[in-house]
Amino acid sequence: MRYLFLFISFCSFSQEVFSPLVPRKEFQPLKIERALKADGNLDEVEWSNAPSLGIDFQVEPFQGNKASFSSQVKMLYNHQYLYVAAILRDTVGKNGYRAPNLKRDYQFVENDLFGIAIDGFNDKRNAIVLQSNAYGAQRDLLAFDDRQFDIDWDGLYRVRTQRSDSSWVAEFAIPWQTLRYPKTDGTKAQDWGINFFRVRRASNELAVWSPHPRSMSPLRMDYAGKLTGIIPPPPTATNIRFIPYLLQVSNNSEGTEIGNSSTSDFKLGGEIKWAISPTSVMDFTFNTDFAQADVDRQVNNISRFSVFFPERRQFFLENASLFSAGLAPVNEVVGGSMYIQPFFSRTIGLDQNVNPIAITAGTRFVYRSEKRNFGGIYMRQGEGDGDPFTNFLVGRYSENFGKQNRIGAIVTTKSSPSNVATTGALDAFIRFNDKLSFSGMGTMTQDSRNSKQGFAEYGQFLYKDNLVTLYWTHTLVSDDYNPEMGFVSRKNVLSNSQGVDFNVRGNWLPKFVRFWQPGVYTEVYHSLKTGNIVEQKMVSGPLWFNLQNGGIIGGYIDASVQNLEEDFNPVGIRIKPGSYSYFRKGFLLASDPSAKYSGSTEYGWGGFFDGTLQMIDSKFRVAPIPHVNLGLSWNWSKFENVGVARETKEVNLLILETRMAINPRLQLIGFYQKNTTDNLNSVNMRLAWEYQPLSYVYLVFNTLNYQGSDSTQQKQQSFLAKLSFLKQF
Hints:
By secondary structure, the chain is an all-beta fold. The N and C termini lie far apart (64 Å). Mean pLDDT is 90; it is low at 1-14 and 329-334.
């Protein structure tokens, strides 16, 4: 092992993690008087006089090298907008820029893109991030400490692009109301943190203006440069967004379990967003509707953990990071299969079978500043789950201290006529230095129905530099821990998981390989009641290669021990209690995800409890032009001689997705799923037109057929038409 570390250290000689620049890079935009039209042409005289900077520090693939192609950024501002223009040189040709589709919040690794990270309070921690790909599709998010991200936050701004054989141009017009900065009387200059970055997909290259190590992202704001001498206007007296909607829904149901019915409903509702100050935002919602939200992807779960389905409803996605205390998928490293969240918004407005329950009204308040963050949510749910109504209340507070540390608390209460359930938690995040951090939480639950108290906790150490990532995660969840407004993947366990992987680079590797990433990961789970080991596994990927084009070639081995204390029934196969040991192998092949034709295939084979299991997970996508995208996913599992009945069983899950776009604002999305486990077939078709920024027309058709518990088919169909309108005051 000592020689392995020496070898890897030698290979990484020039891959050091460096400190932020001192002094920071600086840039001062030019103030103008008239308004500009953001169309990507840059033909106004003001742009020819604007100061500029270059994005010239290469982060990937060769940290510290000069960027392969010139990227120039200009900035202007007036009383209404902050303007940013990027001229991004290239030689791929007008039709060679990479953009597999035009959806909002596209995948970062799949596109030619330009991005801006703005730290308006200059606290070197938090940022508003605005991006555009070469075809003008937007991607925006809120970033906190480069660890937590509100990816589904949608900012109000305009961006248009133009493409030529020598470059592509992105022009942004960002209203001051979208940004957050200290109060001002409109006469005093401010300094903000800022960074600019570019991804060039033809060479899979990341370049930035203000340098940072490749173990971090451009959203690590203590490495950002400084925007100086900017004089933003004072906040408007109101700064209110009013978003009413009209909705018409028709539903049809046929089946012995769901009944036979046909309904048609008209609904009026909306949301109000009030930016009280640069640090405080209040949201109101009434007759809340999520009919246009993306549908869940089917999963055939063969593990002993509950499946975590992500939130897809826009109201709950905004500012989600503030309320996301716990060990959850949003964290940088999960460190095992355990997720513990005191608050999970999918418990609101959905019953235990994920059927929607009407939300009468609700409100959310969020305060964010350099020193502290706090917020609250109150939602009133209508009749469902056997109760005539349910009230949901969440309170969250976190205090920043030191350079990048914080402590916090969260309390949730779910109250109805039949029960009052409360969850409380204390959490902390400490960044010891640029490489080492700790996060942890302790949480308790109690409800009035049975007066039982439950407890859970976790702690995670994470070390990450350009060469190695190591983590150690410890979790404990009691059998009575029941966060009725949260999520936990497993109860009655004490677990420890450790992992290490390396990022090995060198000229001795084949030219098509960017880095070799060998790793080892272990998990051990004990029963809290008996103290016995109930599950342990070790996964090793000694041959794992990340390619220059973004693809992957990898192989892994997986050794597992399962000690069942009760029956386990994956996909309907009964496995009796007992001790089982087995060994599995697998490999993954993935191509360039930005290419017109891309795909991946993972194949695993070997033991599964007392039998064997083969699995294939394949994805294939065709995107001849950014306006047309077709994706196919196939998951196949074959069980042989498994369980009490020594069953042989095949299970298939097929998913077909299509996206056809006139432009980033007018798109038709189709989604089909077929799961042979319960003979499920579902179709979702959605036409979305953003006829002006954040104002939409939706036409949605859904159909669902599945096999009920009595082996008869259950059928549901719905059609909805929805119009929303955003008015800014």
